[in-house]
Design brief:
Length: 342
Amino acid sequence: MSERGLISIGEARRLVAHLMRRDPYIYWTDFLFSAVLGWGAFYAAVVLPFPSFGFVLALLVSALAFYRAAIFIHELSHFRPDEFPLFRVAWNALIGVPLLVPSFMYDGVHNDHHKPDVYGTGEDGEYVPFVLHRPLEMIVFLLSALLIPLLFAIRFLVAAPLSWIIPPLRKPVWERASSLVIDPAYVRSPHAIRSDPNWRVQEVAATLWAWLALALTWLGVVPAKALGVWYAMAVIVFLLNGLRTLAAHAYRNPPEHVMSREEQFLDSVDVPGQRFLTTLWAPVGLRYHATHHLFPSMPYHSLGEAHRILKGRFPEAYERITRPSLRVALVRIWREAGVRIE
């Protein structure tokens, strides 16, 4: 058992060993349906009159579908380098490059988040101890969704091509503008790459896409409204992901403290919620984030069953890490931050 006597990692592994195989049919079907629905709704939002009910509905459907498709970047970061190579290409072609979030921006960075000596420390770009800070910081974090799409556009339209011409710029672009993280002070390591060794191809593709979209809009081939719809859709996606991120961990760990694997689990959160509504804001298995931290390589389609099995065996541990809804999870972290400040 762990030092807190709540869960045995070895026993938990044995209980869910049969759930570790990825089903390519589920991956391809889920991803392609989400991507096609996203692009179809995006087109509808561009051609429908603004403002209108049809436009708003199409925009929301597009954002939710793109959000689900985009979250597969999390699964890609846990693939072995030789696993599902065509899926990685398809994801970047349909989602990563058009949304200016190619998979190399998460590859390696997220894997560090799962290292016992990195998780929750000052080196973890996906962890900010919000509970130790003022609650207002969480509001600022959510509002950053308004700027992120523009920053990504600048990164590929301006920073990338300039860094090809001016080599000294490559280092700051890689360290400061090439990672999907929540800590603005994060500095990416030169070696923070795992399964995307051809990341330069993705960078070039995203840069060409950004310039092509701008040129076609300038020439009148693509309506300017399409850029506005892209921006609004991206803001909704990042806002939803921001809310999900705040509900994913307890965020109590001071930067200097190295946590054990059991502590990482207890610092993380599962929100089983409702089968349909919860998957809208925490798609592709991310509502079972604590269970995911126990078994990072477990495919997303197995996490629900793993949660059920382990909750039955370790009820006290799962009672501690489970929240009934997004609202409860957000209210809890907000109140804990307020108490710490007081």
